[in-house]
Amino acid sequence: MNVHQFLQAYGRAWERRDAELAASLFTEDATYQEQPFGEPLVGRDAIRTYWKNATATQTEIDFLAREPVSSGKLLIAEWGCRYLHIPTGKRRELRGILLAEFAGDRVRIFREYWHRRETP
């Protein structure tokens, strides 16, 4: 899997709220760190659970990744996501950066940093 394929699958998993697809992008022992000061999730099962819970309150999801930068096993990409937050009925927008280190065709180390705002 190349970096473009990864980003397409990552976006598809988010837009479809597909925790299984999201988890399949990572190695069994992958680490997934959502925020710089948070503890990383460890393992594909933890990532699957995170994705299931994180997307449970989202609908009308639209994901976009800008042209990635990659070098060797490392991918860096800026991304954005808009969705409707089901509990509040408000639209939200996220923008962030992800860093992914691959082991073969799956991600072994994943870190992302993002900000959220409500939109009209």
Short précis:
The chain is α+β, with helices and mostly antiparallel strands.
Characterize the structure shown:
There is one protein chain. This protein is of the alpha+beta class. 26% of the residues lie in helices and 51% in strands. The protein has three helices and seven strands. Strands 1, 2, 3, 4, 5, 6 and 7 form a seven-stranded mixed β-sheet that branches. Strand 5 and strand 6 form a beta hairpin. The longest helix is centred in the first third of the chain and has 13 residues. It is globular, with a radius of gyration of 14 Å.
Order of helices and strands: HHEEHEEEEE
Which residues form runs of ≥5 with pLDDT under 50?
none
Instruction: Tell me, rounded to a whole number, the average pLDDT.
Output: 95
Extended strand count: 7
Number of DSSP helical runs: 3
Q: Structural class, from secondary structure content?
A: alpha+beta
Percent range for helical residues? 25-40%
Q: Tell me the Rg in angstroms.
A: 14 Å
Task: Quote the distance from N terminus to C terminus.
Answer: 37 Å
Strand content: over 45%
Largest sheet: 7 strands, mixed
Anisotropy-based shape? globular
What is this structure's SSE topology?
Elements: H1 3-15, H2 19-24, E1 26-33, E2 41-42, H3 44-55, E3 58-65, E4 69-71, E5 74-85, E6 90-103, E7 106-119
Parallel strand pairs: 1-7
Antiparallel strand pairs: 1-2, 3-5, 4-5, 5-6, 6-7
Q: What attributes characterize this protein structure?
A:
120 residues; alpha+beta; 7-stranded mixed β-sheet; 3 helices; globular
